[in-house]
Design goal:
Elements: H1 9-12, H2 27-34, H3 40-66, H4 69-75, H5 84-99, H6 101-112, H7 118-137, H8 146-170, H9 172-178, E1 184-188, E2 194-198, E3 207-210, E4 219-224, E5 227-230, H10 232-235, E6 241-243, E7 248-249, E8 254-255, E9 260-266, H11 272-285, H12 289-318, H13 322-335, H14 339-358, E10 361-363, H15 366-372, E11 377-381, H16 382-386, E12 387-398, H17 404-415, H18 421-432, E13 439-445, E14 449-454, E15 457-462, H19 464-470, H20 476-488, E16 491-497, E17 500-511, H21 513-524, E18 528-532, H22 537-547, E19 551-553, H23 561-570, E20 575-579, H24 585-590, E21 593-597, E22 610-612, H25 619-652, H26 665-684
Parallel strand pairs: 11-18, 11-20, 18-19, 20-21, 21-22
Antiparallel strand pairs: 1-2, 1-3, 3-9, 4-7, 4-9, 5-6, 5-8, 10-22, 12-17, 13-14, 14-15, 15-16, 16-17
EC number: 3.6.3.3, 3.6.3.4, 3.6.3.5
Transmembrane segments: 54-74, 86-106, 118-139, 298-319, 325-348
GO molecular function: ATP binding; ATP hydrolysis activity; copper ion binding; P-type divalent copper transporter activity
Length: 699
């Protein structure tokens, strides 16, 4: 294992070096392993290689151990089989050259690259053991090492097999994302007939039919039909989302109940799913402060190990204990392999990136995720983040003597043909109260509103400009309500029949129900919650009061948001900025942590370190939980791995030999592998972390 986690392309792609046997493993193959990065398929291949070599090595090791003079003396038995003296040398050489090939080739690669690490330590240990064993068989040495050499390599292979298996499991998110795309798509021809084509035959502009239960093959827009779409793979949201004509759909999502026709506008590597796969891959490969610390410690440990091994050999040889010198030198080299130390951080990174992706959290920067646990102020953009970015009717009042049902029927009818966002809000509110009437003679009154004939009467809907143009004033029974709405910053629309004001409606950007809980939970953790918006002060204050935030920054232009972030930082606050990733880009980049929210269909945002694929602000709490837990796991692993090496090296060097306590190389290999497995299992415990937002109060 090299001790630096270089994430350059040349190191991330597996380079196979043919070795003895039918597999291709070696420095390049292990280079992907070294950094504990790369793709899940690569780890799966490596796991299979180490598994196969382990079992063959174990098969060859059994007769070597069983016919060893030392082992027979220990257990008091005698095996007298023909050619017994050749079993150790012949089978031991096969184990050394074939089963030990990944370590030998990896050690040579590290030496050539001048990046000494774990593979070089293992190669040195088994080579010293092999040389001593061969010397024994040639009559030049007084103690055999064949059984220890074979056992050492077998145990090392077992440890590497389990490590590759763990890393492969950690990278399952990429394979799972790749499996979300169907192999084929139903493309609609120009004559309306449907043909089944391979996915790579789709191009932008094609229309595809998505049947109930089928996956959307590419990003696009619904042009016919409506359906409930399961978007859990993008947002982590378990409930299906209603989609209709004009709505965008994303490759890999599932139409749960109806057929829809989608005009494709992104295929292959341009789809959101492909972007998410790239982000997960980058997150698994990106560095962090804890990883950098582990890298430096592991690099230092190589030189400590070599120095300790040399000192051990010289010291024991100087007192005439050459057998012990060789034995303990091999033990020092084995026990000091920084296997667990090198795995401590990268495996946590891989598991946390996979876990995050499955919950709609896309980590682009490990540093950003680490910083999230120390953030003490969360700055939310208002529109589209804490609010839905679309107006709803929040209140209405009728003039004296007017029928409320009739007023809503007329208002919905007049606004039915308008495309204005406020008009759509009126229509939604009207249809929720019952059927709307039919309108004729629709006319748009530029800058004032719209007008139409409903059931023989002329109605108009518009704002204060409409009343001013017609010389109308509000009935007294409307004044108090309208004044209160204006103080809140609500938009006010009036329904006018002929020359009389019939009703008034208040419209506001709807606050997300999840936002209230997100703010409350964040404040419960001791963090300040701040709203920043370009909206008028009264609008921003109303939203801030409704949510219970600590501070409101209103009437801030998009280009000035980063300056506000800088001012907060100047106050000594560590700031996380949560925005939509478009006009908030400078602020996202300026903040200590930038989180782009609601970016499930725009995963290429460069300014944010973390992307929240859903529009649920409660996901910010999930990021904090993940940050805290993954960092704690990293520190636990680093403490265990470093502490193990510090304690084990003196023991392996024979520091307690005076008390009759020495460490055989094979036992050292067991302890080293056990340490690695402890680190791997501890990292896997991250999978138990529940990142789902807490249920809404009252839900």
């Amino acid at each position: 294992m090299t001790m630096t986690h270089d994430t350059s392309d040349s190191d991330l792609h597996v380079r196979h070096v043919e070795g003895p046997g039918d597999e291709a493993v070696g420095p390049g193959a292990h280079r992907d392993h070294e950094g504990h990065t790369g793709h899940g398929a690569g780890h799966g291949d490596h796991a299979a290689v180490f598994r196969r070599r382990f079992w063959w090595s174990l098969l060859l090791t059994v007769p070597i151990v069983a016919t060893s003079h030392m082992v027979m003396d220990w257990f008091g038995y005698e095996l007298d089989v023909p050619g017994r003296s050749w079993i150790g040398p012949v089978l031991g050489t096969v184990v050394y050259l074939w089963a030990g090939w990944p370590f030998l080739a990896g050690g040579v690669a590290e030496a050539r690259a001048r990046r000494p690490g774990m593979m070089l330590l293992i190669a040195m240990a088994i080579t010293v053991a092999y040389a001593a064993s061969a010397s024994y068989s040639a009559g030049w040495f007084t103690q055999e090492f064949w059984w220890e050499l074979a056992a050492l390599i077998t145990i090392m292979l077992l440890g590497h097999w389990q490590e590759m298996k763990a890393l492969g499991q950690a990278s399952d998110a990429l394979a799972a994302l790749a499996a979300l795309l169907p192999d084929e798509a139903d493309r609609v021809r120009s004559d309306g007939t449907v043909e089944t084509v391979a996915l790579d035959e789709l191009t932008a502009g094609n229309v595809v039919l998505v049947r109930p239960g089928a996956r959307v093959p590419a990003d696009g827009e619904i042009i016919d039909g409506s359906a409930e779409l399961d978007e859990a793979m993008i947002t982590g949201e378990s409930r299906p989302v209603s989609k209709g004509v004009g709505d965008r759909v994303v490759a890999g999502t599932v139409s749960t109940d109806s057929s829809i026709r989608v005009r494709v506008d992104a295929v292959g590597e341009d789809t959101s799913l492909a972007g998410i796969r790239r982000l997960v891959d980058e997150a698994q490969r990106s560095g962090s402060k804890a990883q950098a610390l582990a890298d430096r410690a592991a690099a230092m440990l190589f030189y400590v190990a070599v120095g300790a091994a040399a000192t051990t050999f010289v010291a024991w040889a100087a007192v005439g204990r050459m057998d012990t010198a060789v034995l303990l030198t091999v033990g020092v080299l084995v026990i000091s392999c920084p296997h667990a130390l090198g795995l401590a951080t990268p495996l946590v990174n891989s598991v946390s990136a996979s876990l995050a992706a499955r919950n709609g959290i896309l980590v682009k920067s490990r540093i950003a995720l680490e910083r999230m646990r120390t953030v003490d102020a969360v700055l939310f953009d208002k529109t589209g983040t804490l609010t839905k970015g679309e107006h709803v009717v929040v209140d209405s009042v009728m003039a004296a003597g007017e029928d409320e049902t009739a007023a809503w029927r007329a208002a919905g009818a007049v606004e039915a043909d308008s495309e204005h966002p406020l008009a759509r809000a009126i229509v939604r509110a009207a249809t929720a109260r019952g059927p709307v009437a039919a309108a004729t003679g629709f006319t748009s009154l530029t800058g004032r509103g719209v007008e139409a004939v409903v059931e023989g009467a002329t109605y108009a809907v518009g704002g204060p400009a409409l009343l001013r143009e017609r010389g109308l004033s509000e009935p007294k029974e409307l004044e108090a309500a309208v004044d209160g709405w204006r103080r809140r910053g609500a938009a006010v629309l009036y329904l006018v029949r002929h020359d009389a004001v019939v009703a008034a409606f208040a419209l506001e950007d709807e606050v997300r129900p999840e936002a209230r809980q997100a703010v409350a939970d964040l404040r419960a953790t001791g963090r300040r919650v701040i709203v920043i918006t370009g909206d008028a002060r009264q609008v921003a204050d109303a939203v801030g009061a409704e949510l219970g935030v600590d501070e409101v920054l209103a009437e801030v232009l998009p280009e000035d948001k980063d300056a506000e972030v800088a001012r907060l930082q100047a106050r000594g606050l560590s700031v996380a900025m949560v925005g939509d990733g478009v006009n908030d880009a400078p602020a996202l980049a300026r903040a200590d942590v930038g989180l782009a929210i609601g970016a499930g269909t725009d995963v290429a945002i460069e300014s944010a370190g973390i992307i929240l694929a859903s529009s649920d602000p409660r996901a910010v709490l999930s990021v904090i939980r993940l940050s805290r837990t993954s960092y704690r796991k990293q520190l636990q692993n680093l403490t265990w791995a470093a502490g193990y090496n510090v304690a084990a090296i003196p023991l392996a060097a024979g520091a307690l030999a005076w008390a009759g306590l020495t460490l055989q190389p094979a036992v050292g290999a067991v302890l080293m592998s056990a340490s690695t497995i402890v680190v791997a299992l501890n990292a896997q415990l991250l999978r138990r972390l529940d990142l789902r937002p807490t249920p809404l109060e009252g839900a």
